[in-house]
Write a structure and sequence with these properties.
Blueprint (H helix, E strand, L loop, with lengths): L1 H17 L9 H14 L31 E8 L2 E2 H24 L3 H17 L7 E6 L12 E8 L4 H5 L13 E5 L6 H17 L5 H20 L4 H4 L14 H15 L2 H10 L19 H13 L7 H18 L23 H21 L3 E3 L2 E3 L1 H16 L23 H4 L12 H9 L30 H4 L3 H16 L12
Parallel strand pairs: 1-4
Antiparallel strand pairs: 2-3, 3-5, 6-7
Helix pairs in contact: 2-18, 3-4, 3-6, 3-18, 4-6, 6-7, 6-9, 7-9, 9-10, 9-11, 11-12, 11-13, 13-14, 13-18
């Protein structure tokens, strides 16, 4: 009996010893380096001399030309070759927020310069896309098969496509470097407003201005000037951007409307400028615009309320609410509702897979995982600095429990899951090999510059049942379904397509997990 009791006591230790290597702990600093590298694979335009993803080359060099504007640069959003303004701006906002909160940890890891370069690649494009105070280009797409989109050179391809017109691109499997057709650029202006697009772009510019305040003050000032103009444009000429750029409805439809982006932009403008006008805007409009009313269980490129509520809760903890304290307390309560829902201690809790991953939808579920986990991470540090606790329906919760939750989500992504699969390409030994991504799935232009036509790409490369010739290092793919199942197949775009906005929030979490708290008050100015 005594031997049996000893064996039982040793069981937890034995389990730890025999768990797969994926469960033995992760190299968060390595994962951070890889996740930043992914953005270099998404670059559009003229690539710089220090480009580290060497299988990519220049692309989209005529974007904006047909509209008489230079829109070369920026990011392709996902696995296509399209530049969508709303998710690109959100990507920049979240990368900037990651640096604002955890730039010191990134610096200790030697990645701060790479992270700020990734932000600047995006903001350089956003500046080009905003040629006049009340004009903003929001999409660049092929006009060939379906209604056109915006013709913008630069920026990031959002995912694995090369899209201008999303439908046209999705009929075309081609490297970005092979795009020869003029792409259509779509804009918003006073006659065709888009408060959500302009508001998110204002937020991106404002957030980015903070990280360049010391290293490049002139550039920081320029970004803030654009942010002021864009917020005024968004607030003065109200409307949903997908009512003006109607082709966006099939890809990045604005379900939540624009009130959340107006509050989101105001919060970032206040953080960037300390201008009381934006603090008052949050106070006066919080109730009427839903900031204090919406109890959220998601956060992402479309729905920003949880992000606004988290930022305003921070302002409240910093003692900045003033006369708006009652309103800010209502924002704060909704922020806590979101956090409690994540850890299963709220009145309405977020769904999780049997393996413990947040699950919102089958198509690119990881976007919600990384965004929510980032909010949990920063809110945990805000509470710890405030020496407070999270007040949930199930009782008070220590800040460390929020951070532990975020860590569990990151660990799942990196391989601690029922399939022992890393959903970050290039991390670990078992990761997706057939990513739904045009550039990575076709032989590099530098290896074989022979032109690949749209249909040829489908016949030769898309249908090829083999690993991608180019490893899309650092990409976070869409991920498993509600039951932790995943099929590594190129045509399984719901699960194998990556996106820039999957990675952006992850930068901050990985920096925090890899570098620790840093021993400073998270409620004090960090940059």
């Amino acid at each position: 009996m005594e031997k049996l009791m000893r064996l039982i006591e040793m069981t937890p230790l034995l389990l730890l010893l025999f768990l797969p290597s994926a469960f033995a702990g992760h190299d968060y600093n390595q994962a951070l380096s890889k996740s930043i590298l992914f953005f270099e694979a998404q670059r559009s335009g003229y690539l710089p001399h220090n480009q580290r993803v060497t299988w990519r080359a220049n692309s989209g060099l005529n974007d904006g030309k047909a509209s008489g504007v230079d829109l070369v640069g920026g990011y392709y959003d996902a696995g296509d070759n399209v530049k969508f303004g709303l998710p690109m701006a959100f990507t920049i906002t979240m990368m900037s927020w990651s640096i604002i909160e955890y730039g010191k940890q990134m610096g200790a890891n030697g990645e701060l310069s790479h992270a700020t370069e990734a932000v600047k690649w995006g903001t350089d494009y956003l500046i080009k896309a905003h040629p006049e105070p009340y004009v903003l280009y929001g999409e660049v797409l092929f006009p060939t098969f379906f209604p056109p989109r915006v013709d913008l050179v630069g920026g990031y391809y959002d995912a694995g496509d090369n899209v201008g017109d999303g439908n046209s691109d999705h009929y075309c499997w081609q490297r970005p470097e092979d795009m020869t057709t003029d792409r259509h650029a779509y804009k918003i202006d006073p006659s065709n407003p888009g408060s959500d697009l302009a508001g998110e772009t204002a937020a991106a510019m404002a957030a980015a201005s903070i990280i360049f305040r010391r290293s490049n003050p002139a550039y920081s000032t320029e970004l803030l000037r654009h942010a002021y103009q864009l917020f005024e444009f968004a607030d003065k000429y109200r409307g949903k951007y997908d009512s003006s750029i109607t082709v966006a409805q099939k890809y990045y439809r604005s379900i939540s409307g624009y009130n959340d982006e107006l509050l989101w932009a105001a919060a970032w403008l206040y953080q960037a400028s300390n201008n009381e006008y934006y603090l008052n805007y949050l106070g006066k409009n919080g109730d009427s615009m839903g900031g204090t009313g919406w109890a959220m269980t998601e956060f992402g490129w479309d729905v920003k309320y949880a992000g606004v509520q988290t930022l305003v809760a921070k302002f409240l903890m910093q003692g900045k609410a003033g006369l708006h304290a009652p309103v800010f307390e209502r924002y704060h309560q909704k922020a806590e509702y979101f956090m409690c829902s994540l850890i299963g201690k709220g009145g309405r809790n977020i769904q999780k897979t049997p393996g413990g991953l947040i699950f919102r939808q089958r198509w690119n579920n990881m976007q919600f995982v990384t965004s929510a986990s980032f909010l949990a991470t920063v809110y945990s540090d805000y509470l710890a600095s405030f020496r407070g606790s999270l007040k949930c329906a199930a009782g008070n919760v220590a800040p460390s429990e929020l951070l532990s939750f975020a860590k569990s989500q990151v660990d799942y992504i990196l391989g601690d899951n029922p399939r022992a699969t890393s959903y970050m390409v290039g991390y670990g030994n078992n990761f997706p090999r057939q990513v739904h991504h045009r550039a990575s799935s076709i032989v590099s232009f530098k290896v074989d510059p022979k032109f690949v036509a749209c249909r040829q790409g489908y016949a030769t490369w898309y249908s090829r049942k083999a690993s991608d010739p180019n490893v899309l290092t650092g990409a976070i793919v869409g991920g498993p379904d509600a039951y932790d199942n995943f099929a590594d197949e190129r045509d399984n775009y719901e699960q194998t397509e990556p996106a820039t906005y999957n990675n952006a929030p992850l930068l901050g979490i990985l920096a925090r997990l890899g570098g620790g708290h840093g021993g400073y008050n998270q409620l004090l100015p960090g940059m």
